[in-house]
Amino acid sequence: MDPARLRRSIPSALATAAVTALAIAIAAVAFEDRAAPHPSPHGHAHATPGAQSVADLTGPRDGVPDVRFELTARQSQVVLDSGFSTDGLTFNGTAPGPELRVRAGQLVEVVLRNADVAEGVTLHWHGLDVPNAEDGVAGVTQDAVPPGGEHLYRFRPEQIGSFWYHTHQDSAGTVHRGLYGALVVEPPGGAAGPDVVLLGHSWLRPGADPVVAIGTGDGPSRRDVAPGTRVRARLVNTDSRTQTWAVVGAPFTVAAIDGTDVNGPTPLHGEQLRVPAGGRIDVEFTAPGTVVLDRGPAVGFGQDPLPAPADGPVFDPLGYGAPAPVPFHAAGPFDRELTQVLDTVRTIRRGVPNVTWTINGELHPPAAPVAEGELVRVRIRNDGDDAHPMHLHGHHVLVLSRNGVPASGSPWWADTVGVEPGEEFEVAFRADNPGIWMDHCHNLAHAAAGMVMHLSYEGVSTPFTVGTGAGNTPE
Ligand SMILES: [Cu+2]
């Protein structure tokens, strides 16, 4: 399929929004793609001679895997430690699903089975820059796995750090109902010391506020480690809203962001950690200490959990840690420039207020073309009034600046850039992973409404089709 067709027409229900969006698009034109070819609405990845198919861009097909997992998705009750239970979806009977721990360089094989999830299931390895065919996006890199079906993923991770996995089929509904889990890539020698993943998640309740929980439920709220033990806690935001985490009772460092270690992290005292939806922050501290999510659930290490802290200053990665060499520089030159203007569009439809979220004034804007090897700079500006955690699959971007202020600390590599209202980021990446890659807001309701585009390598096409007819609705 031509990648341009990944872009769906604006639903008729949003026709009114489109009028408003048009005005915004006109305003945005001056900001778009000055130095680069404008993304063609007809797409750039025609099936030309020598063209590659997404389906051929696989991980290693041969060889005995070093580690192998089987994950079966099914409908089941999710029961939190507090006793709250809900009709949910699980991998292997739990939500979150099993924690997958692998080591860098290992050949990893994962068999996904769908027992009875009517919507269909895939597995996306959030933040892990796997070969395109292993990326798990329904309609782009594979077909959704129907009930009774299965799919095999094989990849050899080289990035050491904290990641997570989730389904990428009807994800706005099914991730929140439980189809997610932790993925940790350890160094070849294994992790040092106590090393835990804390996944923050909200469970919806009819007629009431969501239940916010860490891990499988509300606990265990205490982990017994000896005082003086160095603890690494990997904080994962599996929600659609920004989470605020804190470490209480001990100074701590931010050891990693989005799976990349911080160079030369310095001690922090009480800073609040704002983690965008889909993002990860690893903290390290010496026990005893407590990790708190959103002034609610907490886990104490070597102590009963301490109460939530008073509001402290907000941690800012932009100047944190020590500079280190990077493979390219903010000064460029860049081979290609892309712009994403994010916005909130409010309309009244048949007397009912309606809101949606656009990129460059559009829902499902056209794919952005890129050629392998190019150095790409992306300007992301949020003109709306909602936060947008922008997630580019298959690549990590280097943050160059925010609101015109250059990044000055440790190189800040991100796969999920939380763009708050009024903010503008400049990021850059090397186009070194051929394929067709989703680039979307990780507030999954925003993505489902159309805040999705694709990065499409020239010469790459996909045999898969997005759309309800094909059974592939990745958002
Ligand atoms: Cu958004």
From TrEMBL:
UniProt KW Cell wall biogenesis/degradation keyword: no
Pfam families (alphabetical): Cu-oxidase_2, Cu-oxidase_3
EC number: 1.7.2.1
Catalytic activity: nitric oxide + Fe(III)-[cytochrome c] + H2O = Fe(II)-[cytochrome c] + nitrite + 2 H(+)
Cofactor: Cu(2+); Cu(+)
InterPro entries: Cu-oxidase-like_N (IPR011707), Cu-oxidase_C (IPR011706), Cu-oxidase_fam (IPR045087), Cu_oxidase_Cu_BS (IPR002355), Cupredoxin (IPR008972), NO2-reductase_Cu (IPR001287)
Keywords tagged on the record: Copper, Metal-binding, Oxidoreductase, Repeat, Signal
Signal peptide segment: 1-30
Disordered: region residues: 35-62
UniProt domain Plastocyanin-like: residue ranges: 75-188, 348-455
Keyword Transmembrane helix (UniProt): no
Assembly behavior: Homotrimer.
Protein family: Belongs to the multicopper oxidase family.
Annotated protein name in UniProt: Copper-containing nitrite reductase
Organism: Pseudonocardia aurantiaca
